[in-house]
Specification:
This protein is an all-alpha fold and 144 residues long. It has one domain. Helices cover 61% and strands 0% of the residues. It contains seven helices and no strands. The longest helix is centred in the middle third of the chain and has 18 residues. It starts with 6 loop residues before the first helix and ends with a helix. Keywords: Signal. This is Anaphase-promoting complex subunit 5. It comes from Grammatophora oceanica.
């Protein structure tokens, strides 16, 4: 037994472990989406945003560029909602073309983030900070 708000955190770790064990994108996405939904219900906006950002990276690595754009946009909106201004600025700098339609001065609608406007085959346009700053899946799996 554990606290009611802990299962979504476990699901996030399980999604990372599944990737470390060779799961494909669609299998991992199911686990990430389960974690994201649970984190949303628990109002853990920071972890929900992080989960979306991680899933965007995974999607991009698997060539699922439309999903990558979708989850970057969703992560951006969640970070903005949470008030993480430094992270919002960092994402705006890292993904200018993927976040170009999001008005930096207005509130981001999570409903609008459910549809993505990425073009087929288009990779996320990001600077090198993501590659330099990301945690390795094996790093996360080793502490679980």
């Amino acid at each position: 037994r554990g606290a009611m708000n802990m299962p979504p955190c476990l699901w996030l770790l399980q999604s990372q472990m599944a990737l470390a064990q060779g799961a494909g994108f669609h299998e991992a996405k199911i686990l990430f989406d389960k974690a994201i939904a649970g984190l949303h219900r628990c109002a853990f906006r920071h972890l929900e945003a992080l989960s979306c950002e991680l899933l965007a990276e995974v999607a991009d690595e698997y060539g699922e560029h439309e999903w990558a754009t979708h989850y970057v946009q969703k992560a951006y909106g969640l970070y903005k909602e949470w008030g993480a201004e430094a992270k919002v600025r960092q994402m705006r700098e890292a993904f200018p073309s993927d976040l170009h339609h999001v008005d930096a001065s207005s509130a981001f609608s999570l409903k609008s983030s459910r549809s993505f406007d990425g073009l087929p085959g288009r990779r996320l346009r990001r600077t090198s900070w993501w590659s330099e700053a990301k945690l390795s899946v094996t790093d996360i799996a080793s502490v679980a």
